[in-house]
Design brief:
The protein has one domain: TIM Barrel (Alpha-Beta Barrel), CATH 3.20.20. It is built from ten helices and nine strands. Helix 7 runs parallel beside helix 8. The chain is globular, with a radius of gyration of 19 Å. The protein starts with about 25 loop residues before the first strand and ends with a helix.
Length: about 300
């Protein structure tokens, strides 16, 4: 089966992107604010207990995020005038409303990230998924006062129906397909939808849990990623996402290295400290039509 969601587009053939005020890099923080069910396995630091019910070791490790880590993260993002783009489980709205209130005072962008991080959509029928997604989107809109414009699936999961259903519900961009340094159009039957770059590698789950990087190595990896994109961005704008989870990166012994990385990035000229909503809005207004026309010409040829 061929991928029908998007066309192949080598980045060297695209018209240059010129971000606001000549920025080379549009940098955004993808802040995962999540809820986990106590009787289901999920992201774990120790696999030996992951299937137990309950699993105090791994559940408690994850629960550090909304209790402690998120507040440390807020102070740090405020320090560098970075507004988070929150990948929000809708269950958070009921269980941790203080986070929603504080995020709204900071002008955070709220994206839909499923009901919780213990439920995936794989295997849902079309109507089951439509009901599920309608509830997730509606819950977040009511709790935050914002209609979510973006979507990240729990564990970046979708069905083949997900983009179409989300488009019908007013979502205009996806983050699940981590295959580019620029936004690009997606094929949906109704409305307009794009992919905005998210990262599974510039992601504290992958770097700390998957690869066991030290804090120093994490800071070096983030700045190395930025340096290459910043150099390339002189020719055409690039997007850099840093995907973070407060129960991981905001542990005290790691937090200081996130501080160092953000100081480095925010200290550069020609960097747009944006939200993913702002990046998507800019792309729709300035580059979407040209990209669609280019893809149409490519498909004909």
């Amino acid at each position: 089966m061929e991928n029908q969601l998007y066309a192949y587009s080598p980045i060297i053939d695209r018209p240059p992107l010129h971000f606001p005020e000549g920025a080379r890099v549009a940098f955004w923080v993808g802040l995962n604010v999540e809820h986990y069910q106590v009787d289901k396995p999920s992201t774990s630091i120790f696999g030996g207990t992951a299937t137990l019910q309950p699993d105090p070791l791994n559940y408690g490790w994850r629960d550090y995020g909304p209790r402690v880590g998120i507040w440390r993260m807020m102070d740090l993002l405020d320090k560098y005038h970075v507004r988070a783009s929150v990948l929000l489980n809708s269950d958070v709205c009921e269980r941790y409303p203080r986070i929603i209130r504080e995020g709204n005072t900071r002008g955070w962008a709220w994206l839909a990230h499923g009901k919780n991080n213990s439920i995936f959509e794989a295997g849902m029928s079309l109507e089951e998924e439509r009901t599920y997604l309608r509830d997730v989107i509606g819950t977040i809109a009511r709790a935050t006062g914002q209609q979510p414009k973006g979507w990240l699936g729990p564990a970046l999961t979708e069905t083949f129906n997900t983009p179409e259903i989300l488009a019908d519900l007013g979502v205009s961009y996806l983050l699940d397909w981590c295959n580019d340094d620029q936004p690009f159009p997606l094929n949906v039957k109704a409305g307009r939808m794009i992919s905005v770059p998210y990262s599974i590698e510039m992601n504290d789950v992958s770097l700390f849990v998957g690869k066991s990087l030290s804090g120093q190595d994490f800071a070096q990896a983030v700045t190395d990623q930025f340096d290459v994109l910043y150099a390339e961005g002189e020719r055409t704008g690039r997007v850099m996402c840093l995907a973070l989870h407060p129960f991981i990166v905001n542990q005290p012994f790691r937090h200081k290295y996130l501080d160092q990385a953000l100081e480095y990035i925010a200290g550069h000229d020609d960097v747009w400290l944006a939200t993913s909503d702002e990046i998507a809005e800019w792309y729709f207004a300035n580059a979407y039509d040209a990209a669609v026309a280019q893809f149409s010409r490519s498909s004909v040829s």
